[in-house]
């Protein structure tokens, strides 16, 4: 919500917690078929994308989320030719995947095509990969889309909002079963799994649902400045390989690429899956 037309305040954790950004100007506001889409020019994080009043993307920290969501599964996968991204209409995860030339196809399934169009206008640095010829943009419901796929994708990214409203179905055991079916025999799923300190959505249940469908389920953290509490967790679910089992054939390529990246490197990757006792307990280990 806006406070005195100068501050945007996002309340979370049953409205017991809040974060705020000083606003210079409201750049865009519209109601799509699915949600309210807004873009603010802030004093501290640059342009800020909001969906239904919740922070999604900012210029200052978007690279963290997008780099880890793409490069971690890519570096573990022995074959990564076909990628599916559900959600992610801002284009940032696509931007990172197109940096890998061995990927042959990237399908972006975003239910709200207006998110894509607004992102193209206000976040061109995120959307620059959408014009790559390997990218297919599909304005569809990811939950319905995944049901028809079997043994098709090497990596599937669930780039979702919080588990509420139309996104709640992206966190169920049934959905994860459909994702597992859509993956190849060594396939990997990545998803965001909220802040365990401000556990409004039941982080432990999310991981329980993932373990019901995948033999290898791990978690790691990366700081997301604009998300509630900053401390953000991500899920890595795999049919065969652990998140720390990097593909040795890709090391030289990544060492060259990571010089241009802002967050990800292979040394960080190797240590990211070492968890605190608090984190382990919250995800049911």
Which key terms come to mind for this protein?
single chain, 285 residues, alpha/beta, Spermidine Synthase, Chain: A, domain 2, Rossmann fold, 7-stranded mixed beta sheet, 6-stranded antiparallel beta sheet, 28% helix, 31% strand
Word description of this protein:
The longest helix has 15 residues, at 62-76. The mean pLDDT is 96. Helices cover 28% and strands 31% of the residues. The protein is built from ten helices and 13 strands. It has two domains: 2-58, Spermidine synthase, tetramerisation domain (Spermidine Synthase, Chain: A, domain 2), CATH 2.30.140; 62-282, Vaccinia Virus protein VP39 (Rossmann fold, 3-Layer(aba) Sandwich), CATH 3.40.50. With 285 residues, the chain is an alpha/beta fold. It starts with a strand and ends with a helix. Strands 9-8-7-10-11-13-12 form a seven-stranded mixed sheet. Strands 1-2-3-4-5-6 form a six-stranded antiparallel sheet. Strand 3 (17-31) and strand 4 form a beta hairpin.
Low-confidence stretches: none
What's the structural domain tally? 2
Helical segment count: 10
Terminal CA distance: 37 Å
The largest sheet has its strands arranged as 9-8-7-10-11-13-12
Instruction: Label the CATH architecture of the largest domain.
Output: 3-Layer(aba) Sandwich
Write down the overall mean pLDDT: 96
Total beta-strand segments: 13
